């Protein structure tokens, strides 16, 4: 089992359209950070993307340091997370040469969570420029580019301009963020149809997937619905914005749009497989859920052509459509951010293996605001409550199954920031010049010694958490599930906050255990990758494949993935016994919630 930590930092900003893309920006190198964070802050002005669709980014790359560092081949990965856009440059050994981030704005109003594609593009260009400068990389050294992003839904018109998906009518807000839960009722409506395509989604669609969100827009924002020319996953939109090619990825379409990727099994060895006609849409599905108009024009609004991850798009990165004088820097077909993390870490082994089937015995954890648990196999596996199987959605020719927890980093943020001791804790961490999480760990160690606990985990014997604060994605697939904290007191101290934090961390781990057990897998060591920026590395690998430096994605993964620390399970039998007991309570908390839900439903009937 491999685990990767992903940092997403940043807050909303105000910026005008005159902000120089090539001018001097105060950017900081993205350092490893223990916390995932996002803030809502509306911008004071809007940004138009009606100008020609080609590329400030190319200029940003070319504006690197005047004294570039010598590297034969460099690959650029771009990752747009929930709170920031990040860029990283890697050499041919998969080593990070430099990275930078730029914050993006986010609006949160109840279950509605929205972003701006214009703001995101500016942030991407800013991060790319800063990363190139920090790495002292000249644009000519960048041989390939890949994009990864959250599975958020982007709406644009025929000119590529944003179309609002917000009740506010604000045209900047043209992205429904992945974690938006406005479409719970639409998801229930779709699931009631029991369409055959649902068996490839774990038996049901989640409100975090695109069909429920599309149905919500049609039912609630009819004017916007009629204006949209393209509906795109965010990572596909980034590739489109960079190349003018609106070919969709098998990753995004299969995992979030109910596209049946296995319709392309016969294309895997074809030379022109990068631009395949989209034959995996189930037209009956779209018709029966009330979105039959998306079938029109050979599915023009949702994707007429698809490609395997890493295949080169269009003519690559271009300055303008009319003035491009060469093929441009190759841009690979995109991946969802978690899946890019999988590509960036799944071959990170202490000792390389030649067995192509060995990869089928691993599970990747990609952790950020939420957590994804991913495994691949040669044969399709249908597991209720676990998304998939998706053919070639991450690694070509392998079936992907995907579990997940909707709130992990976000849950830790909430537990800490909502506690009365949070400001005091932050001040103490700042004064000691350590991270807030290091301070929490120090407090827990002191508590263990003072209370003479046998091990740190025992501090939460009376405190239990059910982490479903944003519903349960896997394996229960219940978006209505609620979080539970058992064992609260009136204690306002930092020590009590540390105890709650530890209980939340344990609950997240028990959620992973629940998913692993449900997938009928076995526990095993955790391998941390050498490079902590695995999503950026995964995106860069797409660029390396697009640049033809490797014959296929699997070959590139083996060349560029590398292992770091290996963490083995505790050999203390008391620790196992303790966590087994806590896990039993963890499971019972959800069963009790179902019982309570039934009691209240009967009372209100």
Automatic annotation (TrEMBL):
Task: Tell me which residues make up the Carbohydrate kinase FGGY N-terminal domain.
Answer: 75-265
Where do Basic and acidic residues bias regions lie?
1-16
Source species, domain of life: Eukaryota
UniProt domain Carbohydrate kinase FGGY C-terminal: residue ranges: 364-520
GO MF entries: D-ribulokinase activity
Identify one Gene Ontology CC term for this UniProt entry. cytoplasm
Q: Does the keyword Glycoprotein apply?
A: no
**Chain segments carrying region Disordered:** 1-44
Provide this UniProt record's keywords sorted from A to Z: Kinase, Transferase
For biological process, the GO terms are: pentose metabolic process
In what ranges is there compositional bias, type Basic residues?
23-38
> Member of which family?
Belongs to the FGGY kinase family.
Q: What is this protein called?
A: FGGY carbohydrate kinase domain-containing protein
